[in-house]
Amino acid sequence: MNNLDGGHFNNTYSCLPDYFYTKLDPTPLENPRLVAFSASAGQLLDLEDSWKTREELTLIGSGNRAWPGSEPLAMVYSGHQFGAYNPQLGDGRGLLLGELVNTRGEKWDLHLKGAGQTPYSRFGDGRAVLRSCIREYLASEALHHLGIPTTRALFVVTSDTPVYRETTEAGSTLLRLARSHIRFGHFEYFYYSAPSGKKRYKALKELADYTIEQHFHDLEGMAAIAGSDRGYQRFYSEVVRRTATLIAQWQAAGFAHGIMNTDNMSIIGDTFDYGPYGFMDDFNWYYICNHSDHSGRYAFSQQPDIGYWNCGRLGQALVPLFDDGELIQKALDQYPKIYTQTYTRLMLYKLGLAEEEQDDAELVRNLLQLLHDSRCDYTRFFRILSSFPSEQTSEQLAQLTSNSSLAPWLDIYQKRLKRNPLNDQTRQQQMKQVNPKYILRNYLAQQAIEKAEQDDYREIENLMNVLVSPCEEHPDFEHYAQKPPEWGKKLEVSCSS
Ligand code: AMP
Ligand code: MG
Questions:
Q1: Percent of the chain beyond pLDDT 90?
Q2: Does the residue 286 lie in any domain?
Q3: Is residue 211 part of a domain?
Q4: Which residue range(s) make up the domain with 248?
Q5: From the CB of 325, is ligand 1 less than 6 Å away?
Q6: Could you report the per-residue pLDDT of 273-332, keeping only the tens digit for each?
Q7: Are 240 and 144 contained in the same domain?
Q8: Is residue 378 part of a domain?
Q9: Of all protein residues, whose CA lies closest to atom 5 belonging to ligand 1?
Q10: Statement to judge: residues 22 and 147 lie in one domain
Q11: DSSP string of 175-244?
Q12: Which of 22, 78, 85, 93 maximizes ligand 1 atoms within 8 Å of its Cβ, making it the mutation to test the pocket?
């Protein structure tokens, strides 16, 4: 029975030696209320929708009651932030409550974000505010339902405990689910902080072996090579592959993470640690969603290169595990190819093209240039294009882009479609399955947050209704698919959450 009354925990991380974490309990919040509960994430723990009415969730989420079987701990890690190594990180405002096994035998980390101070809080208060919890809740569920690997969000709780940011806000928590909370930064921590002496990299090897055993043992051939150079290469290659694939998916969806520090990179290739992210409205290569990112290091167009750079930092941290360091470079060298192939394939799906032809990459490039030049709404463009060809579609696209390059591009596209093995109807249907009508536009999240701050949580639920099936039609929520208002494009989001 996997629920709050007697869930089956298998807390493997807390069995690692104590230099991997600090065990401690959450610090309670006052007068907690449940803000949102994701039925879809609840299924991962065998929790039915009716759980949202159970008081235990709110008590657990606010640190007023322990989840039976949990063993809360703060993980230690470090990482490269904006390109510079920071040796002093770790769970400063979140705790790994434990690892719950569902009836299908899947193990899920339960992580409570906003649980109070830990030894890794540095100068922080260990808290999270309501807006940042709602933003992670909505975005992780939105990306999941777009088919993009991500951590999940079970619920959000808010309280009367004051938290001081630019103004006083409500201390809140988010219960995050993930198959793993191990970050690139975990490996960096044990690489850079290793003591001198013979057993210098003991902890690094323990962490690598643990990670492989928990999350990579299913890789073909791994059983025979685990613990050897080849085994570590196989593991690292897989991380590189998943990272390149993930970022290709972000690029195709128009998603910017905003703060791709290595401590925010998941070792299993999930989208991880939602902060100042943004789903792009108007297409712009140089889109910067993080107001604190003054140099544009994490601008939309930079993400593929940053993913590569981050994989390089992980590779560096793994060097002591290898006799032959060349194996690391060889694995890393695969990144550009995997990224480009995946991105091209995803963009061809968006264009409804079933088989790649030589000039297709150029077709995509020219389209993106056109969208960039006219700052055209990315999601709406592809959704409307999914009904092409028709007079009405061409008119709508022309209105949306107001760019003289559109008509010649559509001509080439139409000729290209003639060589496509799919008939129009099948292609249009398929395109509508990959070109969402609804995305989590920044202003929609903002509206839901502002209402929630007034204790009205209905907007979160309404938004979730469309985000769980973003490619379907939702006639009652047509307004969520409209172009954002001008004020909605200028919202600024920073890290102070
Ligand atoms: P983030 O920007 O959320 O990825 O956090 C970067 C680092 O700062 C992590 O080690 C966090 O645990 C820590 N941190 C962020 N906010 C707080 C806070 N309010 N209190 C304590 N630590 C924090
Ligand atoms: Mg982080």
A1: 93
A2: yes
A3: yes
A4: 186-343
A5: no
A6: 999 999 999 999 999 999 999 999 999 999 999 999 999 999 999 999 999 999 999 999
A7: no
A8: no
A9: 92
A10: yes
A11: EEEES---BHHHHHHHHHTPPSSTTTTHHHHHHHHHHIIIIITTSTTHHHHTTSHHHHHHHHHHHHHHHH
A12: 93
How far apart are the C-alpha atoms of 461 and 390, rounded to whole Å? 35
**CB distance 52 to 77 below 8 Å:** no
Strand ranges inside 261-340, DSSP E: 278-279
Residue nearest to atom 23 of ligand 1 (CA): 92
483 domain-assigned? no
User: Which among 127, 161, 181 is the end of a domain?
Assistant: 181
Same domain, 177 and 192: no
Catalytic residues: 263
Say how many Å lie between the CA of residue 133 and the centre of ligand 2: 13
216 and 329 together in one domain: yes
How many domains are contained in the chain?
Answer: 2
Is residue 232 within 8 Å of residue 113, measured between CB atoms?
no
pLDDT, tens digit, 9 for 90 and up, residues 190-201: 999 998 877 889
Give the nearest ligand 1 atom to 77 CA.
Answer: 10
- pLDDT score of 1 more than 70: no
* pLDDT digit string, tens, across residues 327-379: 999 999 999 999 999 999 999 999 999 999 999 999 999 999 999 999 999 99
Give the residue from 152, 181, 210 where a domain finishes.
Answer: 181
Q: Residue 490 corresponds to which amino acid?
A: K
Q: Could you tell me if the CB of 495 is within 6 A of ligand 1?
A: yes
